[in-house]
Amino acid sequence: GDGARIATVPAQDGTPPILPDGPADRAGLQPGDVITRIDGEPVAGSSELIVAIRSRQPGDTVTLTVRRNGEERTVEVTLGATEG
After folding, report:
1. How many CA atoms lie within 13 A of 10 on its CB side?
2. Beta carbons of 74 and 66 less than 8 angstroms apart
3. Cα 2 off chain centre by
4. pLDDT digits (tens, 9 = 90+) for 16-68
5. Which helix or strand (DSSP H or E) is residue 78 part of?
6. Rounded Cα gap, residues 55 and 41, in angstroms
């Protein structure tokens, strides 16, 4: 794989790809962005990204390398907790 792409349309239950005022939104991530690294480690696909995030705690800050429109940049994201 070549990273984990953030969805561009809401999930079947209507949940938006980026929750307003959530960690990804506050970090400046956008639908369609492709996350290629987390803390410098390559991300081959969405499953790898999920495992990497779940191995950390809410409140931890991670550095993501993100590709958007052919350009890479890094962003810091402070992880939140999942409700429910």
Report:
1. 7
2. yes
3. 14
4. 999 999 999 999 999 999 999 999 999 999 999 999 999 999 999 999 999 99
5. strand 71-78
6. 14
